[in-house]
Amino acid sequence: MAGDLFRRNRPFNQLDGFYTDWSRHLTERCLPTLRDFPTDAKNEAVLGDIHSYYDTLNHYANKNTILYFLLPSWRSNSLETPILLLGDINPRLFTSLVQSLVDDVGLSQDPIRTFSNLAAWEDLSLQLENTINGTVSRLLDETREAQDGFIRRFSDKWVSSFRGSQSETVIMETATSVTTDEEGGGAAIMEELVRIFREANQLRKSVITDIAGVLNMNQKVLFLESVCKLLSGFKHQDKAFQNSLFGYNLINQQLPPDDDNLFKPLHPSEEVNAHPNYPRPMVQNYAPPFPPDAHQFFRPFAPHQNFHPPMMEQQYAPLPPPPPPMAQHQQHAPEEDHVIYVGNLAPWATACLLYQRFSCYPSVRIAKICGDETGSYGYGFVSFADEREKTHAMKAMNRQIFLDREMYVGLAANNSI
């Protein structure tokens, strides 16, 4: 079904495109196949594509790419992390899907009672739960041990890199040196993470296969459809989330005022009720009162034998009108980008890593990675908001080391990415 989607000669810098193609394949091929006249053969074809997906991830996982798979940049949404485990869906979610289908597909929505016969599943569910809990617990312990070893080696290299050196030390370069350190054990840690990642994918495959094996054809269709929707639901979902009601409320929620509001001077009417321990400034300046209303202009003073009050109190000058609003194009004038070219990049360089490499410049906006067809080298572009920082980066970053290669930095042909 998948054509060349699962080919094994894809360059590393195109793996993000693999996730995009896989999401599109699930949406345009697998889901319609399950919905249109489902058969056992179609179910097996979709199940085979899911197996090939995890096999492809395991094929490309090595000591140079494992951190990308464990922490992919497009799965950085914090709202998704509770259902993830070691770079992909937590296998517990697959068993929970079956129970949710049982609870959701009730008599009113399922007149043919698709999940009425679940004796085989009830026997399997307890066995799968024990297997998943034991394996996941062990893999997390092994991951924690590998991370502890990585932290120790990172701290040693970090201290030695800036001791006696006046140049700036970049965290990403220190981390990269740990991953490629054969003698210090850093490379062995990366290999251990590769093994853990592959075993987690094997667990995901086996859980899906075992569940599908005890379901009948109609049950299997609903289960595989839910799995395909899950796997395709991670890629390019940010815009859809922002347009949803929940996303709009979360993004536009009203935040509490800053703490410095607590130290603003009290209004005179509030001083009486203020707490004695409330911090107050030494001198409080209050804004002048507003002009009195018209009926207050003519208010006689109390009579006095030696004083004849004027007929009216002092009149305040009217407030000046507010300045006219700026023109719409002046308020929202787009800022110009200043782009540089970065050449001779390693095949495993990503836009995220390139952005971090130039993050020492505060005005960096976007980084983009391109590559040749063979995948032997890559190049990219970085845009700046400040033209002076762009000029400085072309001089200071040229021939600097990035992922074990010298960067060739120069002026880009266009000021846009």
UniProtKB/TrEMBL annotation:
<keyword id="KW-0507">mRNA processing</keyword>
<dbReference type="InterPro" id="IPR025422">
    <property type="entry name" value="TGA_domain"/>
</dbReference>
<protein>
    <recommendedName>
        <fullName>RRM domain-containing protein</fullName>
    </recommendedName>
</protein>
<dbReference type="InterPro" id="IPR012677">
    <property type="entry name" value="Nucleotide-bd_a/b_plait_sf"/>
</dbReference>
<dbReference type="GO" id="GO:0005829">
    <property type="term" value="C:cytosol"/>
</dbReference>
<dbReference type="GO" id="GO:0043565">
    <property type="term" value="F:sequence-specific DNA binding"/>
</dbReference>
<dbReference type="GO" id="GO:0006397">
    <property type="term" value="P:mRNA processing"/>
</dbReference>
<dbReference type="GO" id="GO:0006351">
    <property type="term" value="P:DNA-templated transcription"/>
</dbReference>
<dbReference type="InterPro" id="IPR050825">
    <property type="entry name" value="RBM42_RBP45_47-like"/>
</dbReference>
<dbReference type="InterPro" id="IPR035979">
    <property type="entry name" value="RBD_domain_sf"/>
</dbReference>
<dbReference type="GO" id="GO:0003729">
    <property type="term" value="F:mRNA binding"/>
</dbReference>
<keyword id="KW-0694">RNA-binding</keyword>
<feature type="domain" description="DOG1">
    <location>
        <begin position="12"/>
        <end position="244"/>
    </location>
</feature>
<dbReference type="InterPro" id="IPR000504">
    <property type="entry name" value="RRM_dom"/>
</dbReference>
<dbReference type="Pfam" id="PF00076">
    <property type="entry name" value="RRM_1"/>
</dbReference>
<feature type="domain" description="RRM">
    <location>
        <begin position="338"/>
        <end position="414"/>
    </location>
</feature>
